[in-house]
Amino acid sequence: MRRLDSLSAVYDRLQDRVVVTIMGAVAAELQSLGHRPNFFYLQHAMGLASSMGLGIALTRPEHQVIVFDGDGSVLMNLGGLTTLARYQPRNLVHVVFDNESLLSVGGFPTATATGSDLAAIASAAGVPRTATVRTIDAFTRAFDEALAARELTTIVAKVEAVGPSKFVTDLSLLENRFQFQRFLAAR
Amino acid sequence: MSPVSVTSSQIVYDALKGCGIRLMSALPETWLVHLIRLADEDPDMTLVRLAKEEEGVGISAGAHLAGVKSAMLMQNHGFLASINGIVSCAQLYRIPLLMLVSYRGEFGERDPWQTEGGGVTEDLLRALRIPFALLDHVDHVARRITKAQTLALSANKPVALLLTRDLMWEE
């Protein structure tokens, strides 16, 4: 399963939802499908995308928040999973694209390549719903079930370690930040 | 009874409420015990207890973009642990942060393990060009917190207030 195909499979569900992504391939690939003002790309600060999602989910319960995370980022903030689990926002869906590597910086293998199981870690941290998926159909089904469940869910999507040829897009970081803030202010 | 000042904690808390703070992230620390309790008991405050302080940068960034004012309660070692998040989230994206940092390791510190962090805290704040002020007397607490918040919001950048022993410790 390719991450781009997974994003493409659920892209229409993102239309009116608040989306926070990590840096690198995830941000570039989502933008390649079409940027929207309700998408925020955290282009650094690895590990904090899920914390940002939590901050939005707790303060704006009327919005459904989707975080597109990655194995390298989650591994830098494993404690954040316990914080997500502690507050269990019903309006947060946490997707972890697990390609078992730090792709953007040369493909170095992460600990998920040697057996660390992020869904099991999330579950043990107290996240009430978790799943590991390996096909587009399974991913789409798990994603739709998470949206409908209205319960904090972490979906670990096992994807191939392939990505776009470049990561810099023509959307400036601050343009994205202020546009996203205005989107939330208007809702 | 812990010598952490209930009176000063209440004054700091009231000042934060007066600034419109509706969410506080915190990692428990001796000097912050009453502030965290006040936030926990306040139905109008969302308290987020963290595993590590850097998470608070992300939570405050999310809250800010969502239109909610927040503050971060941490020890100066928590500030040290948060620096990457401060630089690569808050400063990179021009996010205001109101950081209340207990200033351990200064004159009067008895815990040997706290004595290194105190000596580098102000230098690091200056190196990061984070405006800061000391909170060392109840008389100026409310004014300084309000002004710090004003600057954080007008400049879209992190600011810090250092909670000193003179304010927080009654001994």
What does this structure look like?
Chain A is an alpha/beta fold. Chain A has one domain: 3-Layer(aba) Sandwich (Rossmann fold). In chain A, the strands form 2 sheets. A 6-stranded parallel beta sheet of chain A has the order 2-1-3-4-8-7, sandwiched between helices. Chain A has a two-stranded antiparallel ribbon with strand order 5-6. In chain A, helix 1 crosses helix 2 and helix 1 packs across helix 7. The longest helix of chain A is centred in the last third of the chain and has 14 residues. Chain B has one domain: Thiamin diphosphate (ThDP)-binding fold, Pyr/PP domains (Rossmann fold, 3-Layer(aba) Sandwich), CATH 3.40.50.970. Helices cover 50% and strands 18% of the residues of chain B. Chain B has 7 helices and 6 strands; from the N terminus they run H-E-H-E-H-E-H-E-H-E-H-E-H. The model of chain B has no long low-confidence stretch (mean pLDDT 97). The chains are: A alpha/beta (187), B alpha/beta (171). At the A-B interface, helix 3, helix 5 and helix 8 of A face strand 2, helix 3 and helix 4 of B.
Radius of gyration of chain B: 15 Å
Question: Would you count the extended β strands of chain B for me?
Answer: 6
The largest sheet of chain B, given as strand count, sense and whether it forms a barrel, is: 6 strands, parallel
pLDDT below 50 for ≥5 consecutive residues: which ranges of chain A?
Answer: none
Level-1 CATH class name of chain A = Alpha Beta
Major beta sheet, strand line-up of chain A: 2-1-3-4-8-7
List keywords for this structure.
heterodimer; A: 187 residues; alpha/beta; Rossmann fold; six-stranded parallel sheet; two-stranded antiparallel ribbon; 8 helices; globular; B: 171 residues; 6 strands
Give the structure's gist in a few sentences.
Chain A has helices at 3-10, 25-33, 49-59, 71-76, 78-87, 118-125, 136-149, 173-186; strands spanning 18-21, 39-41, 65-70, 92-98, 101-102, 108-109, 129-133, 153-158. By secondary structure, chain A is of the alpha/beta class. The longest helix of chain A is centred in the C-terminal third of the chain and has 14 residues, at 136-149.
